[in-house]
Design goal:
- The chain is an alpha/beta fold.
- It folds into two domains: 201 residues, Spore Coat Polysaccharide Biosynthesis Protein SpsA, Chain A (Alpha-Beta Complex), CATH 3.90.550; 36 residues, no CATH class.
- Helix content is 33%, strand content 20%.
- The protein contains seven helices and ten strands.
Length: 245
Amino acid sequence: MKVLALIPARGGSKGVPKKNIKLLENFPLISYTIAAAKLSKTIDKVIVSTDSKEIVDISLEYDAEVPFLRPDRISTDHATDIDFVLHSLEWLEKNENYIPDLVVLLRPTTPLRDIKYIDDAIESLKNNNVATSLRSSHVVSESPFKWFSLRNEFYTPICEKYKLEDTERPRQFFPDVYIPNGYVDILRTQFVKMHNSLYGNHIFGFITPMGYEVDTLDDFEYIEFQISKKGTPLFKYLNKIKENK
């Protein structure tokens, strides 16, 4: 089974300029995701989809493939994920005769991944014939069932199943709720091409540790603190690349 890692990385970023290549503990942000994909035991091809020549150069330094530049028309703020996924698949089929069975979406904005979870996620989808895709998530720490909405200036539970008094109950009273975290998403190529849809209606729920995402400069500082405190096994790959330059 052919497994493609697809890393989307536009050049434009409004919150943090050049976010995808901003240094995080001396390495470009995108390099952590490339390292995770390259160290996977299951992924056989690692592609970066970008519209930026600067991101191309940095991605190549860390041994990702960048065989094309993403067209401007699918690189705007309004472009959807299906646009760059289909473009990548069509380009690879036409120019390299490469058709992956699975596409592993790894976004640079979640830099700290345990490679074991990537490989476990791939195996989980391989072994489930019903699932149309897989998305990672983690349990939210505070149940949204305890939240309010406002109706005529008065609070009302956001879920009609519960009474207002229930919002004071402990979190354990409510069912777990999961939030997608960008740790690892996996698509079936055949499903994407046939239905022009990424995930479908049978999304396999794959639970991971909380994935720290980078959206602001404060996020960079927090993740750098996490790295200085705990380190990351991705450093071994990144330092090896740096030494060989």
